[in-house]
Amino acid sequence: MYTVLRNRNYFLLWIGGLISSLGDWVLMGKKIPPARVIWGGLFGKGLTYLLVFNSRSFPLVLLIFILSGTPAIGWQISAQTLIQTTAEERLRGRVFGAYGAILSLFLLLGTGLGSVLAVSLQIVPVLDIGCALLLIAGIVALFVSIKNEDGKSRSEV
Question: Which of 1, 31, 140, 141 is the most buried (most CB within 10 A)?
Fold first, then answer.
């Protein structure tokens, strides 16, 4: 029984990933600037996870999980697009390597910190803190992408 349910959930997540990828492909085809997709994706991922972790309805959680791939895929693709288009060709490999190392380091740090905090704070508040960090990251990305009077973004100044 567990194997069937687990396989069905994998199938639903696969369908959600397919829908998300197609949605992101349509968004990217409309020439939405990558900086806008990054802050929207981070903010959207924080909101969807906040809803999932605090919801008591399984069908709602399943629907949100199916749709949650769109912001996640969107910000990851846009971040890699920005790196690829702004880094010098001779440094691009190093920049991607540093980006991957930083992401892995923060994943390790967050996992360790979350497991220590979950003992004293319980699991849902720790997950809510993670969602708040995603929302803050989205706001910071929005602030960085706002244009100055000169037409340059704050990241280019």
Answer: 141
Average the pLDDT over 115-139 and give the result. 93
Q: Domain count of the chain?
A: 1
Show the tokens assigned to 5: 């349910």
The structure tokens 């972790």 sit at: 53
Cβ-Cβ contacts under 8 Å for 60 (sequence gap 6 or more): 51
Q: Tell which wins on pLDDT, 147 or 137.
A: 137
Residues 142/39, Cβ–Cβ less than 8 Å:
yes
Domain extent for 105? 2-145
Closest by Cα among 157, 135, 134, 133 to 145: 157
In a domain, 151, yes or no: no
The residue-averaged pLDDT of 3-23 equals 61
Lowest mean pLDDT segment, chosen from 26-30, 65-69, 96-100: 26-30
Angle between the 123-145 and 34-53 helix axes, to the nearest 10 degrees?
A: 160
In a domain, 153, yes or no: no
Distances (CA, A) of 11 to 47, 49, 62, 66: 24, 20, 12, 10
